[in-house]
Amino acid sequence: AAKSRGRGQIGYYAPEMNDRALERMRLENELRRALDGDELLLYYQPQVDAESGQVIAAEALIRWRHPRFGLISPDRFVPVAEESGLSLALGDWVVAAACRQLREWRRQGRSPVPVAVNLSVSQFHRPGLDEFMRRQVEEAGIAPADLILEVTEGALMSHTHQVLSAMANLQELGFRIAIDDFGTGYSSLSYLKHFPIDALKIDQSFIRDLPEDGDSRGIVSAIIALGANLGLKVVAEGVEKREQFDYLLSRRCTIIQGYFYSPPLEAKEFVQWLDAREGR
Ligand code: C2E
Ligand code: MG
Ligand code: MG
Ligand code: MG
């Protein structure tokens, strides 16, 4: 049995690897092209304070509208960008696009909803992120407080001195910083003591099985308490169901992001969603 399994594995595995390598190369080339063209766009998903009913922010989530493959999710091409040296270009594109959108909303006389952008590890490791961000908002005529920077724990774990000083400068300038996918990064909690952080986002894997699953309840309650004790905002993401929502509110976590309120929407639809909500 072992022999046939071994043989089967080789015969089955090799072509698959080739396909994947090929697809990756194809995606990489196409992504290079997409970065120069107009195939990338940002979707926006509201974060709502369930207590006041206020929309307190919108997370910008990148999409790739491919002429042949249709809408491609970031889980498929962000890793490709990371591995092919395109992640800085992609990251810069996202920041610029979010600033452009904020400027446009300003121009239309809307009270701006702060936009949360996802920054990659490589952006944090490039010297001068603080200066880059300052220039971006200045050129767009918006304020640092209009942006929230989402980082994963992994980004904080290496090159810590440089990352730390960039983050301190960013916060000093008025940008807010949120830890994304909190609880999934295998990191020690000690960084919470050293890094300037404004918010924790509970990873959706902990939200998914609420309220039935006892472990999820335990982890979520602990993160909420941790955030409260450290004076941080806590955002629950991936909230889909009424029961998840009710549980979070019962634990006094009131900032909710997820399909429960709205999926990520194109800018135009997002604005329509906001208007409908405010009864405009
Ligand atoms: P993330 O930053 O943790 O974003 C949350 C993801 O959860 C988004 O997936 C969002 O569409 C999805 N989501 C929101 N509400 C729900 C819900 O109620 N149920 C479920 N099942 N999912 C929900 P998306 O847009 O596919 O993005 C996936 C990941 O790709 C993001 O995770 C982020 O890590 C990365 N990403 C997205 N945009 C960017 C970007 O501009 N730059 C970088 N570096 N990464 C990005
Ligand atoms: Mg995020
Ligand atoms: Mg997340
Ligand atoms: Mg994620």
UniProtKB/TrEMBL annotation:
Outline the extent of the EAL domain: 24-278
Domain of life, per lineage: Bacteria
Keyword list (alphabetical) reads: Membrane, Transmembrane, Transmembrane helix
| Transmembrane is among the record's keywords | yes
Key word Hydrolase present = no
Q: What is this protein called?
A: EAL domain-containing protein
